[in-house]
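Provenance

Sequences were taken from public entries as deposited. Structures were produced by running a predictor on each sequence independently, with no templates supplied. The record for histidine kinase from marine sediment metagenome is shown for reference.
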Amino acid sequence: SAIVFNSLIKLIKGEIPEPQELKLHRKDGSVIWVSMIASIVRLKKETLFQVITQDISKIKNAEKILKEQNKELQEVSNLKTEFLSRASHELKTPLAIINGYADLIKLKDKKLNQDQLKMIEGIQKGCVRLEGIIHKLIESSKLETSKIELHTKEEDLSLLIKLCVNEVKSLAKTREIDINLDIANLILTKFNKDQIYEVISNLLSNAIKYSPHNTIINIKSEVNGTSIIISIKDSGIGFTEDEKITIFNKFGKIARESSGFDVFSEG
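Predicted structure for histidine kinase:
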């Protein structure tokens, strides 16, 4: 065949031909895949052209099945992403109406007592939390379709870390956990403030939630060349090597007796 002839030409020129895959048809109409590699064998009195073939039909069939399964999984993933995106956007309108009516009741009805006002404030706080969840779902669906835009600008990372620490101090106090800050007073770098805020807040919340009482959480900053490393170290039981992989799956969760470790991963 032409493939064998081309391999022979390359060998004559002193080149080493790449292994080739051929699709062959038997007389009964069935298909067989073979891998072919050509070489020159030099004997004492003659030079031979050698072709070694191997039946790779099982490998090709397995590749075909895997490709079809990957296609099906991608289609399911696309449907899930589209559903999350549409559902998130659809939830925003009724949520805005609920929040709007709660505001209207507070403004119009001056006869509300303190208990009723607290109920309305509870509704509004719930709306704010739901808005945050919806925002995360929308950003997650954008990330999966590579539509998310990272807008970065130079900010003080040290100030953001201190803000996050202040917000979780009350939670840490309930578990008698101290937070030790060992960071530079000024860390100017480019980052997306909202997303890094979410990352640091989640890490601190988990560190507090899954650390024993009367322990210390250490936060440290380090400059390594052009990179800035922020480490948050707690006194939890840590992870196995397999668990380190699991936590970076979306909505990854590790079960630990009566507790678990939740991670919402968007990247």
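The domain at 153-236 is CATH 3.30.565.10 (Heat Shock Protein 90).
Confidence is low (pLDDT under 50) at residues 257-267.
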